[in-house]
Write a structure and sequence with these properties.
The longest helix has 25 residues, at 67-91. The chain contains 9 helices and 14 strands. The protein is of the alpha/beta class.
């Protein structure tokens, strides 16, 4: 099975949590799944910018990216966060390879909005590169930085980056691991299964805002782009990926078309 797992940056900020996730991911990889990881690093980015005296500003859940911020993105996301994760995965026994969307033209992007600075909208991905690595037993670990054919570099929302890679790769399953239980309704109750229309309604009514709005928008694009299953779950749950593959109803599943009450969780062959 082709899996795309997106790791939220907050999960990678704690060394103990990062090590546990690396062990669990390596175990899933060893069981024969073709696996690609995409990671963020927002918390680390904000801390680094604060240390440099640079203000962090957000609009619609996206970080406004000035030239100074973009330099930090390269140093933190494509640098320290990526390499620490790769090192932990190699320690756990996986053949991890650190990449960004710039490498090998993995993900092309264009400017998203002028008021966001160097924030990019991913346009497509390089399936051949991901296939080359995974078929030969490697585990690509992709930082959320992309480029274009003119040599420009863009900061890309990690959820959007995950979708771009998943669609290019032809992933069967996209899993967003985050620091919350899943999608919450207006009463702050977990929604186990959402249809696309219900997810759009949560956004339109202002229930899903900020980072969760961005995540849901990305999940909707993934479902409409043909990804068979999309889940949003808390990454601090032990063995969360394996439990999802076993069919345990953790977090929120975004369903392509069935009514939520009639949908069932899938189960992968382990």
């Amino acid at each position: 099975m082709k899996l795309l797992v997106k790791l939220g940056g907050t999960l990678l900020d704690d060394e103990k949590c990062r090590g546990r996730l690396a062990l669990e991911i390596a175990e899933v990889w060893r069981k024969g799944h073709q696996l690609v990881l995409v990671h963020g690093g927002g918390k680390q980015m904000t801390r680094f910018l604060n240390e440099q005296g640079i203000e962090s500003r957000f609009m619609d859940g996206l970080r406004v990216t000035t030239p100074e911020t973009l330099d930090a993105v390269l140093k933190v996301l494509a640098g320290s966060v990526n390499k620490h994760l790769v090192a932990q995965l190699i320690k756990a026994g996986a053949q991890a390879v650190g990449l960004s969307g710039v490498d090998g033209g993995l993900v092309d992007a264009e400017p998203l909005r002028s008021d966001l600075g160097a924030v990019g909208r991913p346009l497509g991905g390089n399936r051949a590169l991901l296939e080359l690595l995974t078929v030969n037993g490697y585990l690509p670990v992709v930082a959320c930085v992309a480029g274009d054919r003119k040599g420009n570099i863009y900061n890309v929302n990690a959820d959007q980056m995950a979708v771009a890679c998943a669609r290019a790769y032809g992933a069967d399953w996209l899993i967003f691991l985050t620091d919350v239980d899943g999608v919450l309704d207006e009463n702050k109750q977990l929604v186990p299964i959402l249809t696309v229309s219900a997810a759009e309604d949560l956004i339109e009514r202002g229930v899903a805002t900020g980072g969760m709005m961005a995540k849901l928008n990305s999940a909707i694009v993934a479902v409409r782009g043909g990804i068979g299953q999309v889940n949003i779950a808390r990454g601090s749950i032990e063995n969360v990926i394996e439990k999802l593959l076993e069919g345990q109803p953790l977090g929120t599943r975004l369903d392509a078309g069935k009514e939520a009450e009639n949908a069932t969780y899938g189960k992968a062959s382990l």
